[in-house]
Amino acid sequence: MKKQIIFIRGGETFENNGDFYKYLKNVDLDPYKQRKSWIDWVIWALSDTHDILVPLMPAKQNADYRAWKIWFERYLKFIKDKKPIIVGHSLGTTFLLKYLSENKFPKKISQLHLVAPVVKDEGLNVEKLNTFKFNISEISNLKKICSEIHLWHSIDDPVVPFENSKIIKKIIPSINLHTFKDRMHFNQPSFPEILEVIKKVK
How much is the pTM? Predict the structure, then answer.
């Protein structure tokens, strides 16, 4: 059976509808600009060797944790691998950290990748974690179910301050922290570094 990998993409979440409407009025908009995602590139690179699940999380522009939890749990029956790989980006990392801290995941995880993780409101722009907030100290529970945990963060990230990864690293010192200086929020077409680490899992 092919190794399974699950990707949880990012999204936006707000304290109230007013902030959501403000975001819609001010977010950069260019309907002619095609933005290539490193996630799509990694999926393409692994498509022949891995079984890949990419849940399209509900209402990602105004995300609600309960809705994401319901939808994610509907995918659990499709995870056949005894030790899958799980990758999250931005709000996707917050979802994974909260879910895996608070719930009993039915599998061991061979690698958990947290790209530009966010665990606190401070330093965010108009967004707030809202329903995605959780007890950060419970992140330590992840040590029991993950063989490897990798943090990927750029110091110049304008969306999620690097301080978030430092908090996670302090709670679980054994985490592998991959630090960059000029990747911003990883809005990039490829990500060879993370692909290299994922390919090491047999």
Answer: 0.95
